[in-house]
From TrEMBL:
Stored InterPro entries: ABC_transporter_permease, MetI-like, MetI-like_sf
Family from the record: Belongs to the binding-protein-dependent transport system permease family.
Matching Gene3D superfamilies: MetI-like
UniProt entry tagged with the keyword Oxidoreductase: no
Localization (cell): Cell membrane
Annotated Gene Ontology cellular component terms: plasma membrane
BP GO annotations: transmembrane transport
Top-rank taxon: Bacteria
Membrane topology, as annotated: Multi-pass membrane protein
Record's protein name: Binding-protein-dependent transport systems inner membrane component
Transmembrane segments: 32-55, 93-116, 128-147, 175-197, 229-248, 285-306
Keywords assigned by UniProt, alphabetized: Cell membrane, Membrane, Transmembrane, Transmembrane helix, Transport
Length: 311
C-alpha cells in the first residue's frame, strides 16, 4: 500500500518527461552559446593555422604566395639534411639543459628559504617574482647593459677580483651562458611561486610526527619535503622544458643568434627561412619537425616522472 502511494501516476510521469527533455535541450543550447566565442577563436587561430601550416609544409609556397605546387616530403628530406637545422636545434637543446636545471633547483632553494619564516615575507616574494612581470625587451636591454664589455656592471665587479673584462655577448664561448643567466633571473619567479604554494600545503603534522621520532632538519627535508613536492617538481620540469625549447625573443634581442650562430635557436632559423628567405613551405616543414620533437620529449619526461612519483 505504501509503495503504491509513493509511486507517481503514469500520466503524471509522461507529462513531466517532455518538460525535462525541453529543459535539458535549453540548457545545452545555452552552453553552446556560451562556448561559441571561444570555440570560434580556437578554430580560427589554432586549429585552422595548424592544418594550413601542415599543408604548406608539403608545398613550395613562398612568402609572396607564388609557387604553391605540391612537393610531397621533399621539404622534410631537405630539412633532415640541412646542417643549419641541426646546429640551431643543438643550440636550443643546449639552452634547455643549461636553463632548466638552475630554474628548478634555485627556485626550490629560494622557496624553501622563504618558507622558513624569515622576516619580510612580502619583500622576498615581490623581489623574486617582480622580474617575471617585465617585458622581454626591457629584460634584454637591461642585461645587455650589464654585460657590456666596457661599461657593464658585471665586468666592473669582476675587475675588483682581478678578472679581466669578458666580452659576454660577443664571445661564442660565453654568449649562451649570458643568455641563460638572463633567463634564470627573468623567469625564476614563476617556479618560485609554484614551489612556495606547494610547501605551504604540506601538513604540519608530518613535521611534528618526525620531530617526535627525533628527525633533524635535513632528514625532514629529504624524507618529507622532497617527496611531498614531487608532483610540483614534475609540473615545473615539464613547463620549464617546454618554455626553454620555445626560446626566441631574449636571444634575438640580445645576440641576434650570434656570434657566428652560437646562440641561434631553431625558432629563429624558422623565422629567417620563412620571412628572410621567403620559403614558407620549407619553414613549415622545419616547424613541424620541431613540433613533433617537443611532443616526444614531453611524453617521455612525463612518463619517467610519473613512474618515479609512484615509486
Amino acid at each position: 500500500m505504501t509503495a503504491q502511494l509513493g509511486t507517481p501516476p503514469r500520466a503524471l510521469t509522461e507529462a513531466v518527461r517532455p518538460e525535462r527533455t525541453r529543459r535539458r535541450r535549453t540548457e545545452n543550447l545555452r552552453g553552446w552559446i556560451y562556448c561559441a566565442p571561444f570555440a570560434l577563436a580556437f578554430i580560427l587561430f589554432l586549429v585552422w593555422p595548424t592544418i594550413y601550416g601542415l599543408w604548406m609544409s608539403f608545398t613550395g609556397r613562398s612568402l609572396t604566395g607564388a609557387n604553391s605546387s605540391w612537393l610531397g616530403v621533399e621539404n622534410y628530406v631537405e630539412a633532415f639534411a640541412d646542417p643549419e637545422v641541426w646546429s640551431s636545434l643543438g643550440n636550443t637543446v643546449w639552452f634547455t639543459v643549461l636553463s632548466t636545471i638552475p630554474l628548478v633547483l634555485i627556485a626550490l632553494g629560494i622557496a624553501v628559504l622563504v618558507n622558513l619564516g624569515i622576516p619580510g615575507q612580502w619583500f622576498w616574494r615581490l623581489s623574486f617574482f617582480l622580474p617575471f612581470l617585465l617585458a622581454s625587451t626591457v629584460v634584454s636591454l637591461f642585461w645587455k647593459w650589464l654585460f657590456n664589455p666596457q661599461l657593464g656592471l658585471i665586468n666592473d665587479m669582476l675587475g675588483n677580483f682581478g678578472i679581466p673584462p669578458v666580452a659576454w655577448l660577443n664571445d661564442p664561448n660565453t654568449a649562451m651562458h649570458a643568455v641563460v643567466i638572463t633567463t634564470v633571473w627573468w623567469t625564476i619567479g614563476f617556479n618560485f611561486l609554484l614551489y612556495l604554494a606547494a610547501l605551504q600545503n604540506i601538513p604540519d603534522q608530518l613535521y611534528e610526527a618526525a620531530s617526535l621520532d627525533g628527525a633533524g632538519s635535513w632528514r625532514k627535508f629529504v624524507s618529507i619535503t622532497l617527496p611531498q613536492l614531487a608532483p610540483t617538481t614534475v609540473l615545473v620540469g615539464v613547463l620549464q622544458i617546454l618554455a626553454s625549447l620555445k626560446v626566441f625573443d631574449q636571444i634575438y634581442q640580445m645576440t641576434g643568434g650570434g656570434p657566428a650562430g652560437a646562440t641561434r635557436p631553431i625558432l629563429q632559423y624558422v623565422y629567417e627561412v620563412g620571412f628572410t628567405g621567403y620559403r614558407l613551405g620549407y619553414a613549415s616543414a622545419i616547424s613541424y619537425i620541431f613540433f613533433f620533437l617537443i611532443i616526444a620529449v614531453s611524453i617521455v619526461y612525463s612518463v619517467i616522472a610519473a613512474r618515479r612519483t609512484v615509486k
